[in-house]
Amino acid sequence: MKQKTNSQIHRAVLAYSGGLDTSIIIPWLRENYGCEVIALIADVGQGDDYPAVRRKALASGAARVFVEDLREEFITQYVWKAVQAGALYEGKYLLGTSLARPPIARRQVEIALANGADALAHGCTGKGNDQVRFELAYKALAPQLKVIAPWREWTIRSREDALKYAEQHNIPVPVSRRELYSRDQNLWHLSHEGGPLETKLGEPPEAAWKLTRSPFDAPNRETAVTIGFARGVPVSVGGKKLAPVRLVETLNKIAGANGVGRTDLVENRLVGIKSHGAYETPAGTLLFAAHHELEALCLDRETFHYKQQVALRFADVVYNGQWFTPLREALESFIGTTQRRVTGDVTLGLYKGNVRVLDRRSPNSLYDTSVGGFTMGADYDQKDAEGFINILGLPIRLEAAKRRPSALPRRRPSRRSAR
Q1: What is the SS3 assignment for 46?
Q2: Each residue's pLDDT tens digit, 20-43
Q3: Minimal CB count within 10 Å: which of 44, 120, 197, 354?
């Protein structure tokens, strides 16, 4: 495992989770670069025993360890932006891992600059998206720092190899050869990759799911939950105002208990590989559903339709690790403008993994029964529709008139007219 060292690296800051990959990176960096390692443990809602993770990092050879609570920043500055945007990657993925990387990378850079480090390190594989997300953030925030990506350098080629290395160095890791899932958890989601999912394209075994109850075991009665928004930002559950972290935690419990929030998908990674993963995003599933319904009520047609296109681009930008870019800032400015009127409440019904809309209310609602109802009123003159249709159909009529008669489809005579 010994490789050529880089004597120019004296101190590196590692984004450390305590999982399999980062657990073995601390001793590997010391062996192969001979550098001091500072570990950053970023709390974005994993629910880990952080004192224990800190002790483990120190025991593995870290010179210093920073434990940073980034939960509120993660939700308010990143997740809420995605909710306002309605950003779904490939129509299914709520970007749980993608959104968590920018705040972690930002804090990692801040610690590196404050402590005289000359390198940044991460445990992302050379096949995944996260290497791009971390390193594009590094380039935007501190391009002068060297990047060390062990998975692109060492001779380890599998999780089995990584387990063997951990065993040789007496490093305890939270996986075994019996359960080789690669998991990433934060307040917003829990992802499951690797293990059986690499060879089986169906849903994972029931035991793999951690945040959501099986829909078959969920309550037999529908659960109603009302979510309140102010300018597109979630602010309350059941009429009670909640702080951002508490709000997500509350909805995670409600949705998870009803089997809501599971997604099984084959996605297109940025590097060009298709991967099979399973994601649990209980609170996110409810918030996206409710926010969409409120926008449908509050936004005019042209804005609503155009924003759907922007949402697709915003999702790609986040997924591709381009958070710290002018494009993301510009898209966010447009999205923020559209959210000025998105205030109100949406009530959802949850039943055995399904979500339906029970009610929607907003002081800025554009729904008008005098226009939208079937009863004829003074606000809409049906005779106006004729001129509207004539103008709308003008290009169609002109194009049809230019056709040769022989090019027009012949109409078959009916039996009655043929007699």
Answers
A1: coil
A2: 888 899 999 999 999 999 999 999
A3: 354
Instruction: Specify the DSSP class assigned to residue 412.
Output: P
Closest CA to 163 of 150, 147, 144, 179: 179
Residue in 23, 107, 130, 159 annotated catalytic: 130
182 is catalytic: yes
In SS3 terms, 176-215 reads as CCCCCEEEEECCCCEEEEEHHHHCCCCCCCHHHCCCCCCH
Q: Is 316 a catalytic residue?
A: no
Q: What type of residue sits at position 225?
A: V
Q: Is residue 345 flagged as an active site residue? A: no
With the C-alpha atoms ordered 232, 233, 237, 241, is the resulting torsion angle positive or negative? negative
What burial letters (b/e) apply to 146-156, b meaning 16+ CB within 10 Å?
A: ebbbbbeebeb
Question: Per-residue DSSP letters for 131-168?
Answer: HHHHHHHHHHH-TTSEEE-GGGTSS--SHHHHHHHHHH
- Cα separation, 365 vs 237, in Å, equals 20
Pick the CATH number of 11-180 from 3.40.190.10, 3.10.450.120, 3.40.50.620, 3.30.420.10: 3.40.50.620
Averaged pLDDT, 221-231:
98
Q: Is the pLDDT of residue 194 over 60?
A: yes
Q: In whole angstroms, what separates CA 280 from the centre of its chain?
A: 11
Q: 3-class DSSP state for residue 338?
A: helix
Write the pLDDT tens digit of every residue in 232-262: 999 999 999 999 999 999 999 999 999 999 9
Respond yes or no: is residue 264 known to be catalytic.
Answer: no
Helix (H, G, I), strand (E, B) or coil at 319: helix
Q: Which residues pair with 40 in a beta bridge?
A: 15, 66
Beta-bridge mates of residue 228: 236, 345
CATH number of 184-367: 3.90.1260.10
Q: Is 2 left (phi over 0), alpha (psi -120 to 50) or beta?
A: beta
CA distance 353 to 230: 27
Tell how strand 190-194 and strand 181-185 pair up: antiparallel
